[in-house]
């Protein structure tokens, strides 16, 4: 291959090796899956050639990506770890499933269906998935019992319906498996309507099943809501705690106060060159810089604020109108303090209030 | 045009220009959209003339409204701001969509369909929409991950069903797009029943999809419930804080106590001449007047209470029966203190308790 | 009429006049509505005579009930109040609707349908309805905005579908009203399947509508859950507060402590002769008697405990096994203190702990 | 029978008698119910012999189990208690239902359907069922009122629909019972589509019913979510309290502090030889041993930690990377302290902080 191409590949490889999902990968997944979908649609017959091309391209991409990662991991001696990790397994499947099927002589149209497995590659990239998993784990006890109740209702109801309906409509309720199908469709309130009881008793049983359906829904949601509330609180705390400890402004406070503060702050990750405060807008929160840098666009001059500095406090000290544009200059992590909590915090820690007042006055003078 | 008409228009224009939605506008939206709906119904053929008339009237109204606003904004030099604001865009669409379509030679029946866009004009008028938006923004992380999970289930399930059902019922499951349609209809538990798996395996997959549907529901709701609880708390606090600070009665308290109080009070906006307390009714809260004026209808005389005054405290000091009718004389903002919180508050701040007792006694004597 | 009958009627009248719903009334509602239902079913033709008899009986009952109440209210001079109250209106409807219809010459089968209005009579009897209403009122703001969003989605979606589907299936999507029907059926995830989009674009729009459906569900529930949590807390507090103040045991405490205690206790209304504690059962709460009387069934003798006394404390002081049967002798209101809160309470108010210990010891000795 | 068989049976009987559900029982339930399901399916005709065999085997098992338990209970003098307990009744049903039916001359295919009742045997084994029941009991008030509202809507709506639709589609809306069926199917948003209103008015009523359906859902879930949150809190507290009191480490603390700690800890039951901490993993919690023993796998040597000891504290004292594998050596109960709460706890009880620091240092040195 020609030099530039090689170097380009090398560069690309480097990018790929490290991070979990490159933009390219997302594109590949999207294109690949959609092509697979098209492939099965007769209306797209004339474009079949193109579609196959796209599929092959995606496949090549994923194989390449996988190989690069294997090489990278091998070098850094984490090969075993990677191959046993979920990411590694997903990559392997993405790269091997379709070829394997083709090699094993599955007819292509079917083999390509396996490319739907590529969607699994986005899983690690889902924001807050860890959080969801934790909720499911912590609440697994009650969730399982709801599921068991669900299954019991399904079995009891389907046998009852089978007994009541089998003679009237043998073609639909002719066996318990058929009745089971009806029960699931009904208890989840999906209600296809392909299998419907017609006898009075059968309908009464069905009505009870539907109402239980509401109950199952309710319990399920209630459990998840409870778990989620607890998890959110926990998650924010962890994210915020270390950031707070980095802000000298809070260093003065004792651990109790820090725990206090941490419960109140919200973390915010921002890319570079993002407008945080727009001049003239309504303001109801102030910001502490945990990491990165922001630029305050004052009349005449621009002021940089670095790690540990704070801004937007004016909005909380009486005048709600934002006085200047503020935007990040690099990727930054900010801690947001809502007006609500600001008030409470100031009330509990007058010393903080003074520090902020003083700083605010200083700036006001300076910017005269 | 004749003088009176012009002046009437001028007056109307003034009313329109300022506020976001006049009553007239709401009527126009309602009438317009309903006429559009009727227009498409053959049972309304004979009334077609009238319906067209109504539609044209509404259109004229919206164009007029838009022009008036543009003029108003131009004068006050906020034209650019207005035209780039969502309200401005919605107004423009409402005024131009249908005419544009007609001019471009779209056949009328279709062109008028665009008048459904008029419903967008009510959006800014929706109470608590800001609150909902905030919840969606704050919880976007988890919500997006649920959505991604939703899509993954849809894709995996539909390919599986396509593979299992395509030979048995090629007309419905003949392509993955068709299977996708089935998957969405099923996972949202809508269950039209137009596409239903019939093979045993296909039905097992379907059952799993339905149960995941419950899960998606549950997570979704859990997340929103959590976010909403936090948002409500925050919102009430902000609304109440400034009102509280206006009530001299609380001026005595330190900031910590005010934060306390604020957490307990609930704000209530009332139009003029509204009955707040009905004599003889059960009472379980007292009121502070943050803005406006109320009139206490005592035997023999009427007493006015202005900003900063409080009333209804008797109900919290033992006798639950309301002693007199109380109603607003002008638009007022009241702070409501529930019996629950009253008790706690009094316990924490005995001085407040005394003030209220004293005032209550004074009034009791006075109204002897 | 014969004397006994008259006196019986008088007695019955007395019972009826006062309370809102007598058992008899519930029975009448049930019988009446079911008869009405049967009346419309051809399978019940031969029993038509009986059914009519029952219906007439119920009607007579309700008319009688209404007259008695009118008389009672007139005597106690609350006639106007009663007739304008919801209960009064419901009674009037229950008594007059059917006769009025019959008099106006509506054919009987239809006239009797109005007897379904009798179900309205149970409304005042629903437990916790007040609570539900309060939640709906307090959260009305957000709920309305969700409803408005719901309607907007319905209108926009139905016009879009009408535009996309009218040519393909004119019989189902031939007019916007038809499309509106489809939109409501879909957005509520009911999905009858009588009207289903078939064009690719139409199905994509439909998919979006279904997913919005989940969103609407989620928001709706989130709002109600939030409101309900707040309401429950408030409600328990009110119910409990006055009871607590009646228990001498807590009289010692200052108001702050009482607020504390009140937050922890749960009220429980019990009929006479109800078993509260079963000997040998696991116990994790203690009871205070706010009103009524209980009987402790000790070996050899029975001990009565009256208002203000407490029992079941042993379970919280180490030995979890209940030592004796305890049951109410008359209708009683008990305050339940869970182990959880007991621990916290004892920690905060050591004096209480001592009182309870002392009493427990005394009893232990006594029952030696 | 031969000796070994008898002894085997005896052994098995012993195992069965005591515990509620042996693994064998779960297997029997699964096999039995599935066989019953198969029996009704014509596709399984050729395997009918086998299926019958399995069913008889399960039946014999359950009868045997029941007899063994009866004998066991009789010996321990708890026969009456057992036979009146839910478990006893379920066992009796499981053992007698099918034989009774067969004896009474019900044709076999139908008689065997009763074996679905075997699923009831798993109920006692459901985790967290007690918790669910408690929620349903505590919230029964509001839940019942929602149910009543549900029924009222159903009755009013179905009569209305019957009135509006009976003439247009007499075969589906020909009687109120039929309309009731429609109402339930619609209000639960199941929507089979077998009965659908077609008149404009009928559809408007239906739309209202569907929207009420969302409301019912929402209320239901809101109530359950609220109740569940309260119950979870209560449950964890009880589980944890006694464990905490067993940990000498907390003995120093006063009751108030213990209540504090208890609110923060989470209990975790673990089987023997379970990996708790994996070396190199991210750690965000520490563990206290309430019962059992764990083994820390340090370089060179293995250290056992017994009841009352704690581990994993390093993760909370700065270095997040777990330093060693830790696994249980016997069945153990651990108390988990999340980083969140650890911080708060240390802030409130500095003495605890010191103890932990000291211990941590000691270990660090030791493992040098």
Report on the structure:
Chains A, B, C, D: The chain crosses the membrane at residues 48-68, 80-104, 110-129, 141-160, 172-192, 204-227. Four copies of one chain form a homotetramer. The relative contact order of chain A is 0.06. The first copy, chain A, has 15 helices and eight strands. In chain A, helix 1 (3-18) crosses helix 3 (48-75), helix 7 crosses helix 11 (200-246) and helix 14 packs across helix 15 (350-366). By secondary structure, chain A is α+β, with helices and mostly antiparallel strands. Helices cover 62% and strands 10% of the residues of chain A. Chain A folds into three domains: 3-124, Four Helix Bundle (Hemerythrin (Met), subunit A) (Up-down Bundle), CATH 1.20.120; 129-231, Orthogonal Bundle (Helix Hairpins), CATH 1.10.287; 248-367, Sandwich (Jelly Rolls). In chain A, strands 1-8-3-6 form a four-stranded antiparallel sheet. A four-stranded antiparallel sheet of chain A has the order 2-7-4-5, with no helix packed on it. The N and C termini of chain A lie far apart (64 Å). Chains in contact: A-B, A-C, A-D, B-C, B-D, C-D. The interface between A and B is large, with 54 and 55 residues.
């Amino acid at each position: 291959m020609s030099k530039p191409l090689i170097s380009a590949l090398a560069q690309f490889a480097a990018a790929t090796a490290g991070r979990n999902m490159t933009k390219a990968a997302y594109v590949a997944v999207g294109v690949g899956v959609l092509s697979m979908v098209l492939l099965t649609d007769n209306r797209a017959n004339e474009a079949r050639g193109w579609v196959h091309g796209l599929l092959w391209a995606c496949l090549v991409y994923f194989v390449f990506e996988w190989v690069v990662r294997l090489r990278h991991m091998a070098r850094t001696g984490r090969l075993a770890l990677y191959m046993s990790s979920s990411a590694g397994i997903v990559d392997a499947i993405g790269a091997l499933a379709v070829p394997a099927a083709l090699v094993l002589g599955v007819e292509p149209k079917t083999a390509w269906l396996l490319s739907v497995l590529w969607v699994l590659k986005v899983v690690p990239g889902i924001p807050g998935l860890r959080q969801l998993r934790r909720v499911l784990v912590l609440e697994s006890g009650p969730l399982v019992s709801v599921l068991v109740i669900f299954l019991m209702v399904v079995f009891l109801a389907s046998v009852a319906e089978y007994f009541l309906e089998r003679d009237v409509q043998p073609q639909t309720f002719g066996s318990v498996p058929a009745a089971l199908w009806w029960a699931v469709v009904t208890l989840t309130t999906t209600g296809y309507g392909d299998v419907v009881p017609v006898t009075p008793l059968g309908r009464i049983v069905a009505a009870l099943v539907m109402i239980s359906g509401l109950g199952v829904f309710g319990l399920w949601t209630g459990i998840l809501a409870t778990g989620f509330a607890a998890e959110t609180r926990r998650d924010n705390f962890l994210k915020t705690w270390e950031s707070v400890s980095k802000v000298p402004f809070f260093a003065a406070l004792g651990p109790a106060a820090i725990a206090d503060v941490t419960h109140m702050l919200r973390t915010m990750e921002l890319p570079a060159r993002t407008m945080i405060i727009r001049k003239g807008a309504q303001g109801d929160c102030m910001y502490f810089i945990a990491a990165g840098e922001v630029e305050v666009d004052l009349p005449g001059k621009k002021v940089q604020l670095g790690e540990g500095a704070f801004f937007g406090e004016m909005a909380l000290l009486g005048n709600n109108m934002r006085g200047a544009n503020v935007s990040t200059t690099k990727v930054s992590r900010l801690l947001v303090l809502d007006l609500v909590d600001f008030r409470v915090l100031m009330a509990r820690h007058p010393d903080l209030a003074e520090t902020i007042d003083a700083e605010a006055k200083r700036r006001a003078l300076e910017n005269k």
